[in-house]
Design a protein that fits this description.
Length: 240
Amino acid sequence: MVLLITPCCYLLLHTPKAQNKGYIYSAISLGCIAILGSTSAHWVMYYSGTSLCGLIWLGTMLKDIKIANYAVKNKSHFSNPLEITTYQNSQILSSSSNANKVNFSGNVNTALYNSSQQQDDNNECINSKAKQVHINNSVVNNALLYIENNYFKDINIDTIALSVGVSRSYLVKQFKLATDETINNKIIEVRIEKAKKVLLKKSVTETAYEVGFNNSNYFATVFKKRTNYTPKQFKRTFSS
């Protein structure tokens, strides 16, 4: 009761509604049947209980497989299948007496300031729109946080919706209302901003894969469109 049923009941109460709870239900049913079997000394109940638990687990796994297949079929074409789980943002700016380094640092600081300013503007936009229509700020902010922390992985609308515990259509609607942009566009925006830093230390191909693109040519096309620089031009300009 203490080791199985009680913690599972706690998990059940604190698990988002949209998340698959079959594993929790199966564990609770196994615990209940174990208690009944022990008190009544009917060992057949144990066998029937484990069979029931196995069937619930099977149904839960099939549901997970269905969700995973749906996510694969609907994933965006720019997602990267490579999971770079050990990647962490590194500090780019360092103090130097060299004049060129000082100029470069100023450029990057300006870019970082503009990015921060844009984030503040987005937050103000969310607060302003929330007064006019019902916007679930918690869902939108959690989605933005998930993108920021997982941009280098194989993420798309379905995986983000699953992570925040809402449906795909609800997330798309709330995100658009709050930010005036699509989720796919936001993912690309975050990846390009991260790429500006990585490009200064790594090759174009390495940068493309590290920030979540699975094709360096497509990365170069998107980077040029977003920054008016090709990756190589950006690297030469700001690394010198």
